[in-house]
Amino acid sequence: MKNKIIDILIRADGNVVSGVQLSKALNVSRVAVWKQLQQLKQIGCNIESTPKGYILKNREDLLFPTLFSRRAESLYFFQSLPSTMDKARELAKKETAHFSVVIAEHQTNGRGRLNRSWSSDEGGLWFTIILKPQLPPPLAYKVNFAASYCLSSTLNRHLGIETTVKWPNDILLGNKKLAGLLSEMETKGDMISFVNIGIGLNVNNHPEKNEPNAVSLCSILGRKTPRRIILSTFLDVFEEMLLNLDRINIIDLWKKRTSTIGKHVSLNTHDNVFHGFAKDVDDSGALIIVQEDGTEQRIIYGDCFHT
Ligand code: BTN
């Protein structure tokens, strides 16, 4: 019933819809409509009650699948999940289609790279894209670099901000972290069975409370940003890029957006810490650093800090 109410309010395009209209359309009492509206308000729908009826105010921010038109069928939306990564893995193992997306308003056990936890309050964009590319596992890096490149360029183009990508695939605004990407892959024989890309983008939440090095669009722009527009634009851009991935040198493109090359960096890998000057990212996505003694080190995975 909630989806239907949202549908009607959206189609009203900012105009008032009366309680009588809603109860007739849904064939339920006005009290039943009122109860549903209260629940919708509780889950973040900004529905204004006026003497003449109801108006939906924040439609551009809402993430209900029905609002994504052609994508509606391939979006899985949850009010709360432990982690969109777990749900995406569960779905990916079934017949779930390539480029399906799992979205949660809130995660109770969001995770980041190197087993860190990821705080996922309401107001942010927390989602995982299920990808089933026809690629061998060693080429999965292309998909990861394409995701961070597309997210950074979408944000820059649509919001007029200057984000950069930090190796391997964080999105920075200045030197603060605006978004993080986490990729999990499963293989079958010589091919990728699925690669799930989880993205956490701080939009209207306030991560800086617990994470001094994090920032959100809301605190930078000084206003709320409609999440659905960002998500749907990014998905369009990323999907298009995936279709052309074999004709594009994604590493070259990504390098034009990175703030890592040319910086002094510290790198934490699972079992080591490296320091040096970030010289380049090679064609397979590995970071090449020059250490103090002049030796080069090629790093394929780790957490990078610009120092
Ligand atoms: C990182 O920078 O360490 C990666 C953070 C990835 C967070 C996102 S939020 C959506 C998805 N679900 C998770 O539990 N993690 C990713």
Characterize the structure shown.
The chain is of the alpha+beta class and 307 residues long. The chain has eight helices and 14 strands. The protein has a seven-stranded mixed sheet, sandwiched between helices. The chain has a five-stranded antiparallel sheet with strand order 13-12-11-10-14, with no helix packed on it. Strand 7 and strand 8 (176-188) form a beta hairpin. Helix 5 packs across helix 8 (250-257). The model has no long low-confidence stretch (mean pLDDT 94). Biotin binds next to helix 4, strand 5, strand 8 and strand 9.
Which keywords apply here?
29% helix; single chain; binds biotin; five-stranded antiparallel sheet; 29% strand; 307 residues
Mean pLDDT across all residues, rounded? 94
- The shape is elongated
Largest sheet: 7 strands, mixed
Number of strands: 14
Order of helices and strands: HHHEEEHEEHEEEEHHHEEEEE
- Assign the structural class, choosing from mainly alpha, mainly beta, alpha/beta, alpha+beta, or little secondary structure: alpha+beta
Radius of gyration: 21 Å
Number of helices: 8
Which distinct ligands sit in these coordinates?
biotin
Percent range for β-strand residues: 25-35%
Q: What low-confidence regions span 5 or more consecutive residues with pLDDT below 50?
A: none
Task: Determine the N-to-C terminus distance.
Answer: 53 Å
Percent helix: 25-40%
Strand order of the largest sheet: 3-4-5-9-8-7-6
